[in-house]
Amino acid sequence: MIKEIATKAFGDQKPGTSGLRKKVGVFQQPHYVENFIQAIFDSLEGFAGATFVIGGDGRYFNREAIQTAIRIAAANGVGRVIVGQGGILSTPAASNLIRKYKTFGGIIFSASHNPGGPHGDFGVKYNIGNGGPAPEGVTDVIHAKTQSIALYRIADTADIDLDSIGTVAVEGMTVEIVDPVADYRLLMETLFDFDRLRALFASGFRMRFDAMHAVTGPYAKAILEGALGAPAGTVVNGTPLPDFGGHHPDPNLVHAKELYDLMMSPDAPDFGAASDGDGDRNLIIGRGIFVTPSDSLAALAANATLAPGYASGLAGIARSMPTSAAADRVADKLGIGRYETPTGWKFFGNLLDAGLATICGEESAGTGSNHVREKDGLWAVLLWLNILAVRRDSVLAIMQDHWRTYGRNFYARHDYEEIDADAARGLMQHLRDQLPNLPGRRLRNARVASADDFAYDDPVDRSRSTGQGIRILFEDGSRIVFRLSGTGTAGATLRLYIERYEPDTARHGMATGDALADLILIAGDLSELAARTGRDAPSVIT
Ligand code: G1P
Ligand code: ZN
Fold first, then answer.
1. Which protein residue's CA is at the shortest distance from atom 8 of ligand 1?
2. DSSP H helices in 354-420
């Protein structure tokens, strides 16, 4: 039976660039999930009888939310839903299913790298038919619908068994419970040389993949230990847990410290990697070397043709503005297009759809390609492995060789979290006011070439995005970038990105902190950082 339940708007259900993200307790309020999912269907047209993908990263409340989504979909006239077994689908795997089965769209439950458990975060995101996150035009309509909602439709049925693969019916809608890994593994087999990867592991190559008790565990076990023959135990923390084992599923040097320490120790295996809560971010560490996401993007792009999926070359490389310019140097050498977009994966979607870019990346550990429309953590790991399998060099040797060829872009991001929002806005305005006077000025040993508040003209849909961050570019190729986070939850988060370009191979062994010291002082002076924020050090350095 289908019921229509009278409801009213919840105050703030505005989805951001990564969907609607709130504390679990907020989502547990009666009617809250129902309202938002009904608002998604209310915002769509022409989906009667169509197929949707539904899955999530396995965090606390995932199963409950999926049962609700199935009931609401059935009551709204959806024809079929494809659901990951156990409610599990990594974000890139969901993107793949949407594309492969040409579904109308998909609903993904995840709060990415945020902590889980009853006191952690939860989230829901709608992806459109190209497999990518809904663009702003769509999320604006969803938001409007959440504000005017008066009723939701729901099938009055018992929970379905999410754990048994197969097909069941709910009020005339087909629910197909699928293996969450199978189609994703097939996609990876089309991109990478699995025979060669098997030979790599058979030759004694060793790696550790830290799944952080999040969604990539089953994917990494099936592909690395299953299909590729890596020894059992290669994947650690491989069982998705509702609270991620009490850890923060964020693959950075703070939260994946154990992996980092192992990779810096005498017992380090050849390769270390990790992924986040929903499987779209990646961390790459070689024996004795952490590869910054910006460098990883550049190295992957430079070597991509070694993998079968990219053997015919890349159409172009796209990076977000704060990501280091290392990838630009690769694009220039290859004579292919390079694109600098505002922060956020959604800006890559148009470039990928239009065939302008093949590989994309962000400094925040997101890397991906045109195989899906989300960033993809395990994809980045497999492309690295494919490159290592062909070159039979260490990660360190590959990066040193890369820097010899292209020069090295030393890079760091300093986050000032939970600072006063007015102080943050004042600091950005203070910088903006100085922009006209900066070009030509000598600051310590560097001369400013240009300075602006970054604006982006989308070459595909011609839309213009302004106010995307203050960029100060120096004549030697170094850069300082300031921007305010769009995802922080408390106060404001100021991000300072510092990059120094160093062509001289003799200096490539410097410590990053030393290489960037002067630029950090310049950034502090120009922005009056300490005085305006009251902080004498960043909260996090990545
Ligand atoms: C952060 C990252 C950005 C990423 C986004 C969503 O956004 O910096 O690269 O796309 O999370 O994962 P920010 O908080 O900087 O706005
Ligand atoms: Zn994520």
1. 364
2. 377-391, 395-406
User: For 429, which DSSP code?
Assistant: H
Q: Which residues are in the CB-under-5-Å shell of ion ligand 2?
A: 112, 276, 278, 280-281
Ligand 1 within 6 A of 497 CB? no
In angstroms, what is the span from residue 17 Cα to ligand 1's centroid? 9
Q: Select from 362, 415, 419, 496 the residue to mutate for testing ligand 1; criterion: most ligand atoms less than 8 Å from CB.
A: 362
Strand, helix or coil for residue 112: coil
Q: What is the mean pLDDT of the chain?
A: 96
Mutate to test the pocket of ligand 1, among 341, 414, 485, 539 (most ligand atoms within 8 A of CB): 485
Asked whether the beta carbons of 352 and 373 are under 8 A apart, the reply is yes
What type of residue is 235? V
Averaged over 40-53, what is the pLDDT?
A: 97
486 lines ligand 1 (CB under 6 A): yes
Q: What distance in angstroms lies between residue 345's CA and the mean position of ligand 1's atoms?
A: 8
257, exposed or middle or buried, with CB in 10 Å at 0-12, 13-18, 19+? exposed
Phi, psi of 218 (to 5 degrees): -60, -35
* pLDDT per position as a tens digit, 347-403: 999 999 999 999 999 999 999 999 999 999 999 999 999 999 999 999 999 999 999
What are the residue numbers of the active site? 112
Say what the alpha-carbon torsion angle 235, 237, 240, 242 is, to the nearest 10 degrees: -170
Distance CA(74)–CA(83), nearest Å, equals 13
Question: How far from chain centre, in Å, is Cα 540?
Answer: 18
Q: Is the Cβ atom of 485 under 6 angstroms away from ligand 1?
A: yes
Question: CA nearest 173: which of 101, 42, 77, 45?
Answer: 77
320, 327 Cβ separation under 8 angstroms:
no
Which residue has the CA at smallest separation from atom 10 of ligand 1? 344
Average pLDDT for 180-190? 98
**Ligand 2 center from residue 280 Cα (angstroms):** 5
**Is the Cβ atom of 495 under 6 angstroms away from ligand 1?**
yes
Which residue's alpha carbon is nearest to atom 13 within ligand 1?
A: 485
State the DSSP H helix or E strand holding residue 109, giving kind and residue range, or none if neither: strand 105-109
CB 260 within 8 A of CB 78: no
State the burial class of residue 71 (Cβ atoms within 10 Å of its Cβ: 0-12, 13-18, 19+). buried
- Residue having the nearest C-alpha atom to atom 1 of ligand 1: 487
Q: Please state, in angstroms and as integers, the Cα–Cα distance from residue 57 to each residue in 191, 279, 368, following that order.
A: 24, 8, 19
Rounded to whole angstroms, how far apart are CA atoms 123 and 127?
13
Question: Which parts of 357-484 are beta strand (E)?
Answer: 359-362, 366-369, 408-419, 442-443, 446-453, 456-457, 464-465, 470-474, 479-484
The protein residue with its alpha carbon nearest to ligand 1, atom 4, reads 344
CA of 374 to the centre of ligand 2 (A): 9
The sheet that has 366-369: what strands, in order across it? 337-341, 316-320, 359-362, 366-369
